[in-house]
Amino acid sequence: MTSLPQPGELLMVDIPGPTLDDDTADHLQRCGIRSVCLFGKNVQSEPQLRALCADLRAVLGAGALIAMDHEGGAILRPTFWPFAPGAMTLGAADDPALTGAVSAALARQLRRVGVNWNFAPVLDVNVNPANPVIGERAFGADPAAVIRHGRAALRGHAGAGVAACVKHFPGHGDTVLDSHLALPTVPKPRAALDATELAPFRALLPEAPAVMTAHIVYPALDPQHPATLSRAILTDLLRRDWGYEGVIVTDSMGMQAIDGHYGRGEAAVLALGAGADLVMALGRREAQDATLAAVAEALATGRLDPAQMTASLGRLRALAQTFPAQVAPTPDPGADEALFARAWAAGLTAYRTPQAPRPARASCWWLTALLNATTSARPAPTPRPWPANWAPSTTCTSTPSNARKSWTGRPCAPTESPSFWRRPPVTAPRPFRAPSRTCTSPCTTPTPLWMWTPRP
Asked: What is its EC number (predicted)?
């Protein structure tokens, strides 16, 4: 008889801060959780991050999976290492060797502190200019280019000893909604999906240790469920038809695409039943507890197949064994600064077909004269005396300027500081002003300031 796994072994959670407090450590151990995702709130410095990962390893055990979104470009959690360019820059440079080198450098940064799983590269084909969430995270709009650079990125990670994770399967490149905020739909026919969205995943899954699912409905694949909750997509297509044997992890179940439509606990059970190996149960402790309780009940009642869950645990343990969460001696990340600078520069791309301005012709003598006149040195303006009702704010005046309150009568001495002129405060009481409405003395109902007039 197959023994039931602990619910926590099938979940990935986040932790509240830059240190592992006793309460969080007890929660991880008590629930049997083996996987943690780190975010900016968990990162302060390299020594701090290394210490945090060591504490997590001690609590999570030998099968620890410590993950992070470390894509490059806009998606970087640590800010104390040299900044690597994102996928769009690397795609524009179109040098797979450079992409592989940058990806290996990113992986070395993570391995230096003990992170063994990077949620990268992005294999989305960014064909929709109105896409609000992918953009510069994708290698481009050409599936062949995405395959070319995605393969280089996967090999760069593998060479550095960090597990990569391709995302967001089956593809987030042609949406106009952000799944963090809503549930998108991609209403393309299957042939169009095969030619665009699915092409990079199908080509690169044999080299991908893990794949992350998208919270998107693809009616041509499953008209009822988003991919994260779809058995037709995760089991029938990914496992059976394509023969994928790596880890399937969901995107965060706290996104509104899932949480706003299904709820945390029920969605986790549906995702595991659909074929996911690991559910990303991020968020507050109450949400994690609700997910743990729902999965525990589904395991106890047989709603989740014990044999399928055991197979999932086997894949997770194999991933942790192949890419252990151990600190490895790596070169100083500062040494990669020149590599990143070269990659940033290589990705600079002209927009459309810019044209250099033509030299001035003889018929444009007046424009040339005007430009020369506006760019030549002008004589200093003559200081103007201040108005009678204005006074300097210090013992000296300042040099003339365009500001109305800086008219001067004399220049400042070397030991004096220039300052603006100020209108002296009004000390005399203002005369009574009657309201402009029907009342002739102060009204019982307050009247706006602009309604008063100088008449008695």
From this structure: 3.2.1.-
Active site residue 222: no
How far from chain centre, in Å, is Cα 173? Answer: 15
Q: How far apart are the first and last CA of the chain?
A: 99
Which position has the higher pLDDT, 311 or 419? 311
Q: Can you tell me the distance from the alpha carbon of 161 to that of 159, in angstroms, rounded to the nearest whole number?
A: 6
- Catalytic residue list contains 251: yes
Burial class (CB in 10 A: 0-12, 13-18, 19+), 429: exposed
Closest CA to 277 of 300, 311, 307: 311
| pLDDT band for position 259 (cuts 50, 70, 90) | confident
Taking a C-beta distance cutoff of 8 angstroms, is the pair 142, 195 a contact? no
Which among 80, 108, 104 has a CA at the least distance from the CA of 156?
104
CATH number at 260 reads 3.20.20.300
pTM over 0.85: no
Q: Is residue 383 part of a domain?
A: no
Rg (CA), the chain: 32
Q: Active-site residue among 55, 180, 261, 289?
A: 180
Residue 397 inside a domain? The answer is: no
| 342: DSSP letter | H
Return the half-sphere exposure (C-beta side, CA atoms, 13 A cut-off) of residue 409. Answer: 12
Preceding peptide of 226 cis, ω within 30°? no
The per-residue pLDDT of the chain, averaged, comes to 84
| Within a domain: 365 | no
Secondary structure of 80-113 in HEC code, one letter for each residue: CCCCCCCHHHHHHHCCHHHHHHHHHHHHHHHHHH
Instruction: For residues 156 and 108, give the distance between their C-alpha atoms in angstroms, rounded to a whole number.
Output: 10
Range of the domain at 139: 9-343
Tens digit of each residue's pLDDT (9 = 90 or more) over 172-194? 998 888 888 888 899 999 999 99
Mean pLDDT (whole number) for 308-337: 94
Indicate whether 37 belongs to any domain: yes
Domain count, the chain: 1
- pLDDT at 52 (0 to 100): 97
DSSP lists the bridge partners of residue 37 as: 67
Task: Select which of 124, 251, 277, 336 is catalytic.
Answer: 251
